[in-house]
Write a structure and sequence with these properties.
Shape: globular
Oligomer: single chain
Order of helices and strands: EHEEHHHEHHEHEHHHEH
Number of strands: 7
Helix content: 40-55%
CATH topology: Rossmann fold
Distance between the termini: 13 Å
Radius of gyration: 18 Å
CATH superfamily: P-loop containing nucleotide triphosphate hydrolases
Bound molecules: guanosine-5'-triphosphate, magnesium ion
Number of helices: 11
Length: 253
């Protein structure tokens, strides 16, 4: 039975699948823990890791589209319902994975997973098995300005409330995007607040710093890591954050 479960979330194309593989490999090689993988994306094509459980063994988005005459979004929604319905079965499967850490790759359309019943149903199921920590990827290629970066980070907080698990945000794709906010975020949320006060105007100048204060108060860490799932940069720091968050709820030894 796993001792820790890490759920990787983030917008479509933010790098969830790539990070699932590279973080798992990093943990195995550098921490010496055995790592299991779960794919919960029924729309995935190929996976860069070998899953211990693959939801595509139950259903795929394509099958559902054909069988139920739905379009891709309707099929994703249906898939999330089917996943929620089978959560007891999933619980048995995950309990039987003989790995110390299990990393869960989630569907591309994060909003369908998080804001429909499947997300909370799955995280509450996983929490029964082991302390479960979310990683929320902020993709700097789609959030290049400070106000958008703040709203992306706020999503991490909203997901934490919605899924009732601690969520660690991480700014990804550091190897290709070196936008200023990426570096600022790496320094810390307080710095982002200062920058927001200096650079923003109007309502944003009022709202954004207050939102950042909320995040500082309620996210598990005010440190923000900048990572690359491609080069491995920042994975050690991300693992440290996950581990510190874990330590407040369990013991991996
Ligand atoms: N340069 C760079 N590219 C990355 C990184 N992480 C992911 N990518 C690329 O981003 C694209 C999407 O990566 P995925 O890992 O499939 O992202 P995802 O969030 O699982 O995507 P969906 O499940 O389809 O939503 C791919 O082309 C990856 O090679 C990274 O750290 N650096
Ligand atoms: Mg994916």
């Amino acid at each position: 039975m796993p001792a820790m479960i890490v759920v990787v979330m983030g917008p479509a194309g933010s790098g969830k699948t790539t990070l699932t593989a590279s973080l798992g490999k990093w943990i195995e090689e550098n921490q010496g823990y055995s790592v299991g993988y779960i794919n919960l994306d029924p729309g995935a094509e190929t996976l860069p890791y070998k899953p211990d459980f693959d939801v595509r063994d139950w259903f795929t988005v394509e099958d559902i589209m054909v069988k139920e005459g739905l379009g891709p979004n309707g099929a994703m929604i249906r898939a999330s319902e089917l996943l929620a319905e089978r959560r007891s079965e999933l619980r048995r499967i995950v309990r039987n994975i003989r790995k110390e850490v299990v990393i869960v790759d989630t569907p591309g359309q994060s909003e369908i997973f998080i804001f429909r019943p499947a997300g909370p149903a799955i995280t509450s199921t996983l929490r029964w098995i082991a302390p479960t920590i979310g990683v929320y990827l902020v993709d700097p290629t789609i959030t290049p300005i400070i106000s958008e970066a703040t709203t992306s980070l706020l999503m991490g907080l909203i997901i934490q409330l919605r899924l009732d698990i601690p969520v660690v945000p991480a700014v990804t794709k550091a190897d290709i995007v070196r936008v200023e906010f990426g570096e600022t975020l790496a320094i810390g949320l307080e710095k982002v607040r200062d920058l927001a006060l200096k650079e923003l105007g109007g309502a944003l100048k009022e709202i954004i710093p207050r939102l950042i204060d909320l995040m500082i108060e309620y996210l598990p860490s005010v440190r923000l890591v900048t990572i690359s799932a491609k080069t491995g940069e920042g994975l050690e720091e991300l693992y440290q954050l996950i581990y510190e968050t874990y330590c407040s709820c369990g013991d991996l030894t």
